[in-house]
Amino acid sequence: SDTILAQIAAEVLCIPVDKIIVYSSDTDMTPFDKGAYASSTTYVSGNATKRAAEHMANEILKAASEIMDKPVEFLRLEDGKVVAEDGESLTYSEIQTKLFYTLNQRQLEVTESFVSEVSPPPYMVSFAEVEIDLETGKVDVVDFLSYVDCGTTINPKLARGQVEGATVQGIGMTLFEEHVYDSSGRMVTSDFFTYKIPARDDIKKIRVRFAKSYEPTGPFGAKSVSEIGTDTPGPAIANAIFDAVGIRMRRLPIKSEDLYFELKKKGI
């Protein structure tokens, strides 16, 4: 999310992303905030960041207007500079140096916040292809395709990685991970020998696509991706099993031995 916030600020201020430093969750430096919540950092904090950057852009233009003695409406931001219609320009560094050491000795600083009455959720649809070993009940997910609606994908690589990772977690929850407790309530599957998670060989093909979408209340049309990738593997894989052998598995994880006995009951 820090990268996304840096991208939003950089876009508004017309500077490279590496010129933005994001200080996240440091109460010694950042204003008080109750949080983004619901894994909506891109939407909530992103909107606050965009507002702050727009505010700062206006302050830069006003400061440049004062220094250059030109009306604000004849100035624009471009590549880390304020450029006038006649071609005269000042870099942001030059503007701040003049403000701090020459004009009134001040720094440009702004604070903004964002509160929304709506919370547009992301959406995701997934398709699972499975192979079932009829002699053991073992299920292999050979292909998993998802389409995600998260508004504008500000950083497609990060969004894709988040969905892919969440999908692996969802597959693990669906086919591998089981919490087993003894009679006193102590968890007995408490190590990686007894608590199974998918290894690399267990994950075949995962494909993620993004639907064309624009959220008008989000920063540059973006929503959040959140943990939506964990939600679809369970029902998608269960439906694929039903489509393959006509057996509806209603508990997770779907263990091979449970499916095997259901196959035998059905005479498969």
Fold blueprint:
Blueprint: H1 2-13, H2 41-68, E1 75-78, E2 81-84, E3 89-91, H3 92-101, E4 123-132, E5 139-149, H4 156-175, E6 205-210, H5 233-245, H6 256-265
Helix pairs in contact: 1-2, 2-3, 4-5
Give an overview in words:
It is a single chain. It contains 6 helices and 6 strands; from the N terminus they run H-H-E-E-E-H-E-E-H-E-H-H. The mean pLDDT is 93. The chain is elongated, with a radius of gyration of 26 Å. The protein folds into 2 domains: 2-101, Aldehyde Oxidoreductase, domain 4 (2-Layer Sandwich); 123-265, Aldehyde Oxidoreductase, domain 4. A hairpin with a 2-residue loop joins strand 1 and strand 2. The chain has 268 residues and is an alpha+beta fold. The strands form 2 sheets. A 3-stranded antiparallel β-sheet has the order 1-2-3. Strands 4-5-6 form a 3-stranded mixed β-sheet.
Summary of the model, kept short:
This protein is of the alpha+beta class. The chain has helices at residues 2-13, 41-68, 92-101, 156-175, 233-245, 256-265; strands at 75-78, 81-84, 89-91, 123-132, 139-149, 205-210. The protein is built from six helices and six strands, in the order ααβββαββαβαα.
Biggest β-sheet strands, sense, barrel: 3 strands, antiparallel
What is the percent of helical residues? 25-40%
Estimate what percentage of residues fall within beta strands.
5-15%
Number of beta strands:
6
Number of domains as seen in the coordinates: 2
What is the CATH class designation of the largest domain?
A: Alpha Beta
Question: What is the CATH superfamily of the largest domain?
Answer: Aldehyde oxidase/xanthine dehydrogenase, molybdopterin binding domain
Can you tell me the overall shape? elongated
- Report the uncertain regions: none
Number of helices: 6
Tell me which oligomeric state these chains represent: single chain
